[in-house]
Specification:
InterPro entries: DUF1697 (IPR012545). This protein folds into two domains: 2-82, SP0830-like domains (Alpha-Beta Plaits), CATH 3.30.70; 87-178, 2-Layer Sandwich (Alpha-Beta Plaits). The chain contains six helices and eight strands; from the N terminus they run E-H-E-E-H-E-H-E-H-E-E-H-E-H. It has helices at 21-30, 54-69, 80-88, 113-118, 150-158, 167-178, and strands at residues 2-8, 34-39, 44-49, 75-79, 102-107, 129-132, 135-139, 162-166. The strands form two sheets. Strands 2-3-1-4 form a four-stranded antiparallel β-sheet, sandwiched between helices. A four-stranded antiparallel β-sheet has the order 6-7-5-8. Helix 3 crosses helix 6.
Length: 179
Amino acid sequence: MVTYVALLRGINVGKNNQIAMADLRELLSGLGFTDVATLLRSGNAVFTTGERTPAEIAAEIEGAITERLGLRIRCLVRTAAELRAVIDADPMRGKEINGSRYLALFLDHPIDQNLLARHDPRELDTGNVFLGDRVVYQWCPDGIMAAPGVTAFVEKKLDVVVSNRNWNTVTKLAAMLEG
């Protein structure tokens, strides 16, 4: 069995795309996933299942949400090792940061280098935006609302799906995966 984390995009924001975490846990258990646990109301779930690709699992979860809940929600899935790699590659490691102002923008696939050459998100906020493996890190020293809209830029210009989490959530998910 392999442990995974699912990151649902854009749920429980305002009145849109409401999914109770109990319903999400039930849906994931109904797909045959075990040890299902959720974190917060923002669509974070940890579970175990047989070894499959994260893309296969994401497609299965998206299909089940559409079929059973009538919502079209994108889902990104990472293995415990992939999430650990995001933390290990943290460009802000060792610096004093507020985890609620530091984002990991998880990408559904690697950035196309030709698109990146024309639309580099690091230019939006030099010194505060960093690229990783299927992740963009964004430090927002004045708060997320005051920071440049890197998520929208990356989705539009680099043709990827993004699901972002603040660093506090990322580290809590990692602890759940390792626990």
